[in-house]
Amino acid sequence: PRAPLVLGIETSCDETGIGIVRGTQLLANTVSSSMEEHVRFGGVIPEIAARAHLEAFRPTLRQALDTAGIELDEVDAIAVTAGPGLAGALMVGLSAAKGLALAAGKPLYGVNHLVAHVGVGLLDPAEHHRPGGIGTAENGTAGNGTAANGTGQSGMRELPQNSGALLVSGGHTEILRVGSLTSDVQLLGSTIDDAAGEAFDKTARLLGLGYPGGPAIDAAAASGDPQAFRFPRGLTLPKFEGSAQTPGKHRHNWSFSGLKTAVARAVEQFEAAGKPVPVADIAASFQEAVVDVITAKAVRAATEHGITTLLLGGGVAANKRLRELLAHRCADAGIELQIPPVSLCTDNGAMVAALGAQLVAAGTAPSSLSIPADSSQP
Ligand code: KG4
Ligand code: ZN
């Protein structure tokens, strides 16, 4: 069978994303962001985001179709984020998807935003970090691919055996065992308070680095000393973690609220003493603490659950230090790491299309045209 041609629609937060894939091949990934309209509020305002989706939808769709060189009636299916996310924002994309599906007579697939962040890892090309010191290869598995990532006869790529995913975004921080993207995703651990991206955003605000904070801290940290401050690594005490044999309740969980408080205290001390705040050093030390505890716990959870291939996803996956330390620790643990390009880590429509193509190829039944937006979908 021919690889399915799928249009993906993403509107769960501030990015209006339209992606088009044929199997695992990316044909278009057009993103329009309303971030600039939210900057002065220091966070995404749901009503503004929903209105911006409404305005951006048609031009973004047109541009994606032109880039892919196709028309809507050629696609095999339309996939759309049904949740989780901002209710009003989700509703714009979902309503649009329903209208297009109905008008063009195409099956509709409502997908989970978080699973889509993982599914994008099956698109070409991703960075593959193989254990054994081979290093980073921009191995797009063009041609025949490899044993672990070969594309099958249908032009679809199989998820490797014993796969897991580390999902780090503005709303979620999760380690998952992924038996199948279409039917078997198990949560191994997650944050019990702030998401990793949220911690970056709040810390950036404390340091006066603006919004969104992740890229700002990433940049500021480049000229700072990551050892200047020893910020806390949450939930790493033995009483939380236990042992591999008798795991504690929070063995595979994270907490970032204490870290945020510690940064606030450090800033206050400099201000109280009338000294300049060493922004770069604090940013670098904060980033080191977050990345250290995320990677340590993720790799341990993966190891203890027999995961041999880890897919990284979510906006925080754009972080340079995270990519570097995770690659290093996965290599040490004998885990193959797959990291999508940055443009596919932050919210986009291609990830929705990629998961949609997997659903079509798996023979999954389409969603009903009355599928609701589910803002708190797990
Ligand atoms: O996945 P995403 O685009 O949206 C959600 O689904 O949440 O993630 C957005 C988050 C924001 O918190 C942003 O600050 C963070 O990803 N982020 C980063 C970087 N780029 C984006 N965090 C750390 N370092 C980065 N380079
Ligand atoms: Zn996201």
UniProtKB/TrEMBL annotation:
Gcp-like domain mapped to chain residues: 25-131, 164-353
Positions bound to substrate: 167-171, 201, 214, 218, 319
Cofactor names: Fe(2+)
Binding-site positions, Fe cation: 113, 117, 347
Keyword Cell membrane listed: no
CDD domains the UniProt entry points to: ASKHA_NBD_TsaD_bac
Reaction equations catalysed: L-threonylcarbamoyladenylate + adenosine(37) in tRNA = N(6)-L-threonylcarbamoyladenosine(37) in tRNA + AMP + H(+)
Major place of residence: cytoplasm
Cofactor note: Binds 1 Fe(2+) ion per subunit.
GO cellular component: cytoplasm
Residues covered by region (Disordered): 135-154
Low complexity composition bias: residue spans: 136-151
Presence of the UniProt keyword Acyltransferase in the record: yes
UniProt-annotated location(s): Cytoplasm
EC number(s) from the headed UniProt entry: 2.3.1.234
Pfam family, one: TsaD
Stated family: Belongs to the KAE1 / TsaD family.
Name of the protein in question: tRNA N6-adenosine threonylcarbamoyltransferase
Native organism: Nesterenkonia sandarakina
